[in-house]
Amino acid sequence: MAFTSRLTQGEAHSNRVRSDGTPSHRSRPLRALFVHRDADAIDACVQELEKAQFTVSSDCVLNLAQCGQQLRSKSYDVIIVEYTGSHGKGSQVLQLLHQPLQEIALIFLTPGLGSKSLLELTAEGSFEYVEREHIAQLPMVVRRALNHKELREELAEAKKALQHSQSLYRALEDNPTYGICRCDAEGKLLDVNQTLVTMLGYASKEQLLAANQESEIIPNFSNSPLFAGRIPETKRIEPVEMEWKRKDGTTLKVRLSGRGVYDDHGNFAGHEIIVVDVTEQRTLEDQLRHQALTDSLTGLANHRRLFEVLHAEICRTKRSGREFSLLLLDLDGLKSINDRFGHPVGSRALCRLAEIVADCCRSVDTAARHGGDEFALVLPETGATAAALVGQRICDLLAKDTEKPPLSVSIGVAGYPQDADTIGTLLYAADRALYAMKAKKLESPLSAHSPYSFSEDSNAEFHESRE
E strands of 197-314, at which residues? Predict the structure, then answer.
């Protein structure tokens, strides 16, 4: 059974002060378990430890059986055991404390020892002991034992971390998803895993390394400007994307990340780079982005993309002062086509108009389906006169189309900034011009399918109405 004697006054000194009344800032908490029958000896040990700035919290037991029980219920930093020199005593102690010794420092408190006893202790694995007549050395021995314990713990943690890192590396190296390459401190490629060999379309590591020496398929990481932002302290490379070429000449889009590696002496020895093939992912993202901005029927830009382009053009015009124009187009009589020929023919009519509008576009222009039977055409750096000519050309091509039923279109033109100062007012201006043309067609039905059904007169009417 454990007891706390008058000797364990360290517990009452948890807020210990020096003899001059000032607090001790060097004090170190120490949980000690004494396996000893002599209270005076224990008292002397505690006093020496407190003199050495330890804040001692101690318990005492009389024998090894009580020691084992106490260790199951409480933890300690150090165990101080009475050693009488009797045969087998050291072996019994070490056997009983085999498991706790992995975490607790063990110190024997001995009488004067002969060389034989000392050799016995050393052979049994007890590396720390203090003779009773030299009890003043106990604090130094305790510190040494605790330092050894800390070093053992650090070594154990380092081994555990190394094993974990090695297992992760092996798992990563064998993973069919991740390519790995290693380079030296100068950035020269040293090794690759089989996954990266397969990614790049080569038959073997040797073939890839030989090809890389000739054409630097995998770039030198020390010279690449893409890696200039690596963290200098750890040599860690933040994720970056780039394009490589496969053996067959196709493009491989990869995302790279990496870390520095060091030799046994702590010197920087190079990088380990993890390579992820993101080609399919980026292709899918591009397809989804295209679908999100494209009209599914005609293949032109959709309503959302139209507004993005108009916003960008207004911002550009404000910077450069160069005007742009917007054409709104409405397919005449789509409802009649649907009612007479069916919706598939009506859908085909929309596609016919979309094809002609797209044929009249420059690379900088944007053709869009505005919704239903309405289309739009954004013409950067184009004035009203040039835009009217584009509209006339669309009407001409539509009139020459031999596919049935014949189609006609009404067009309205508005320019920025002369006709409007926002997206909304620009669309309104073009819409007003479009309906002015429709009204003129209703007044003169014979002109509905004329190659000259669109004219600058209808646009002029709109400008006059605004004035």
Answer: 237-245, 251-262, 268-277
Q: Decide if 413 contacts 459 (C-beta within 8 A).
A: yes
In a domain, 3, yes or no: no
Question: Do residues 138 and 185 both lie within one domain?
Answer: no
By three-state DSSP, how is residue 433 classified? helix
HSE-up (13 A, CA, CB side) for residue 194: 5
The last residue of a domain, from among 282, 303, 323:
282
- CATH number of the domain to which 25 belongs: 3.40.50.2300
Residue 32: exposure state from Cβ atoms within 10 A (0-12, 13-18, ≥19): buried
- 108 vs 34, 75, 141, 417, CA distance in Å? 10, 18, 10, 95
Residue 202 lies in a domain: yes
Q: Taking Cα atoms as reference points, which of 331, 325, 327, 298 lies closest to residue 410?
A: 331
Q: What is the dihedral of CA 158, 159, 160, 163, to 10 degrees?
A: 120
Residue 65 vs residues 61, 62, 69, 80, 347: alpha-carbon distances, Å: 9, 9, 7, 15, 94
pLDDT 10s digits, 310-321: 999 999 999 999
User: Is 270 found in the same domain as 222?
Assistant: yes
Using a 10 angstrom Cβ sphere, with 0-12 exposed, 13-18 middle and 19 or more buried, the burial of residue 154 is exposed
The residue range of the domain holding 359 is 293-466
Which contiguous run of DSSP H or E holds residue 119? helix 115-124
Type and span of the H or E element at 235? none
Residue 57 covered by a domain: yes
Looking at the structure, do residues 303 and 449 belong to the same domain, yes or no?
yes
What number of other Cβ atoms are within 10 A of residue 236's Cβ?
Answer: 13
Closest to 336 in 3D by CA, of 395, 407, 401: 407
For residue 367, with 0-12 CB atoms within 10 Å meaning exposed, 13-18 middle and 19 or more buried, which class applies? buried
447 phi and psi angles, rounded to 5 deg: -90, 5
Query: What is the domain-level CATH number for residue 386?
Result: 3.30.70.270
**Do 210 and 139 share a structural domain?**
no
Q: Which of 152, 185, 212 is the last residue of a domain?
A: 152
Tens of pLDDT along 345-395? 999 999 999 999 999 999 999 999 998 899 999 999 999 999 999 999 999
Residue 219: enclosing H or E segment and its boundaries?
none
pTM above 0.90, yes or no: no
Number of domains in the chain: 3
Residue 287 lies in a domain: no
Do 89 and 140 reside in the same domain of the chain?
yes
Residue 442 has a pLDDT of: 79
